[in-house]
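Suppose a classmate hands you a notebook page containing two proteins, each written out with its sequence and a corresponding row of structure tokens. How would you begin to make sense of it? This section walks through that situation. The first entry is reproduced here exactly as it would appear on such a page.
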Amino acid sequence: MNPPSSDVAFSPAVKQVQSERGSRAAYSRMERDGGFETEVTESLRAFLAQIDTGFLATASAEGQPYIQHRGGPRGFIRGLDSHTLGFVDFVGNRQYISTGNLSENNRVCLFLIDYARQRRVKVWGTARTVPATDELLAQLAPAEYRARPEQVVLITVSAWDVNCPKHLPQKLDAAEVAQALQRLENRIAELEAENRRLRGARP
């Protein structure tokens, strides 16, 4: 029998701590059902379409961890097939820490957050960088996003899971707030105009 997909996160040491602190039984029940999701489902695609930020965790061959922010327009991370996610890696500060780490250790964890809806998703897998070909850019490049592509990151998904929303602050996008305020101001203007009209119609 294959081990549950959640073993990508639940090592023997993790399971030992879970046992000591009382959560192992609950996670054992989840493991009997197979563990975490392993395919890029429609629900994951829908979540990706809503987010504009994420954090990619890599490590060197010696195990030194590193986390790098990745961002773009909503939906910049996309599902390419049932086991692959991809995004365009734009030119940045040219330190190439993540790229260097991937050249010697391809294991990654992608931490994705939708602050407005207070949801977060963890994705485990392996990743590689490939040239930003016209074919891949046609699939992954955000429309009208003014940044220069340098390469493409492809992630082969091993497992993913929806994380607990506890302690996740709700933050709203500035553009969405501005649009909501504009709608409110427009409605107030309509009501004020109607109020003036009704006052003027009094005998």
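The notebook's second entry, a different protein, reads as follows.
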Amino acid sequence: MSELNKEVADLVWGRPTSGGVSASIFRRWTQGFLFSENEHSALEQFEGGPCAVIAPVQAFLLKNVLFNKDSPNWRHISEEDQKVALCSTLSEILESACSSPSTGYCLVSWAKGQTPHTSTHAKTQTQSQTQGTPEPESSQPSQVLQPTSLSAEDLGFERFHSILHKRTVKSVSELREEMLSLYHTWRGCCGVLLFLYSVILTKGIENIRNEIQDTMEPLIDPVHGHGSQSLVNLCVTGHAVSNVWDGDRECSGMKLHGIHKQASVGFLTLMESLRYCKVSPLKSNTEGKHTLLCKHRHIVSVI
């Protein structure tokens, strides 16, 4: 593992003990951004953990789809519209995370010839029959092969970090073109992690460390596998602060960073009703009407 990859891994997963990062937790984060077959503008999550990234992407995606006049029926968008919506959404989040346009945008994908083999599963689809017309005995349900969301079984933590490729694009137009060209990468094995690493390297590891309240706390919890508040804030606002109040606050001589700019996607939490925290008006009152709702250890996107 290269030194840069190790820095990113330590920031995301923490410095593992002798046992290393839990294989089961890492596996839960190896899905891609896949659309639901039943709700064409909805992203699916298969296991607990990656909602900290998927839910913000879902919220921005819905915002973009709903306000796109070329797609009047947001619940039944075409595959091409899904591609454009997802890639433009990922680009938007990367743009908000970029500390300085002069430094460019970092995209993390697979090294040449190292794309993990993604298994396929057969999904049976039975054609509807006309009422009163019997189905021929020789007919068989058609099988359609579709990519799964999970990585190959032999792709572990160390292997994943050894086959990453990073490249930098300098302009927004080039970024959007590259995001479209990498569409199948975002949908495939580890697409969520590849995008998360792209956001982190675009933001800058040192910039994130300066914003996180506790630099010893990883972005992904090593025990339960859920994303931290800093990770959610990074995806929603472009800043990896650990708190959800307005501005910075002083506490016993310590500066605690909060939200400084209104986001186009909001954040609410059930913890506020229990008086465990107070969400910033800048974060709860958004430019649009799309909000993330944090329910204990799960985050969902609501309109």
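A careful reader of the second entry would note: The chain has one domain: 3-114+144-302.
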